[in-house]
Amino acid sequence: MFDATTILAYKGKNRAVIGGDGQVTFGNSVLKANATKIRTLYNGKILAGFAGSTADAFNLFDMFEDFLEAKKGDILKSVVEFSKAWRKDKVLRRLEAMMIVLNSEHIFILTGNGDVVEPEDGEIASIGSGGNFAISAARALKKHSSLDEEALVRESLSIAADLCIYTNHNIKILSLDGEDK
Fold it and tell me: Which of 32, 46, 93, 159 could anchor a disulfide with 137, C-beta 3.0 to 4.6 Å?
C-alpha cells in the first residue's frame, strides 16, 4: 500500500493557492522525496492536487482536463461530470485516490466514490496522509496570523511535515497565475 502526500489548498481573498509535499513512500521506505503532485489545468485557470498513485494522477488529471475543455472551464459542471465518470469507470473507481481542484471562486475535494465536497468554510481543503495536520495548521494560522495565502499554505505544510511521517519538507506551491514557488 502506498502512503504519501499532503495536499493543501486555500482560496483566500486575494489568491487561490495549492501546495503539496514531495514524498512518496511504500511501506517503511521512501521511494521518492521530490515528486510533484500539483499542477495547473485549463490554461492556468484551475489548480489541482492529487493524493494516491502518481501514474493514476496523470490519468485523472488528463481526464478532468477533458471535462474542463468540454465545459469551457466551468469548474462546477466539470467536477460533477468528472465525478460521475470516475465513479462509473470500473478501474478508476477502485483507486484509493482523491483530488482537490480549485479556482478563484470554488474549491472541491473529489473521490472515486463520486464524492464532490465543497469545504464547509469554502476556503481551505486538504487531502492525503498529513491532510488533517495541514488543515488544522491552516485554520489556526488563518485565524491568528496575517500571513498571505502562499505563506499560509507553505507554513501549514511545513507543520504537517514535522508531524506526519509520510510528509516531507520538499514543498511545492502553485497559485492561479501558474507561478511555481
Answer: 159
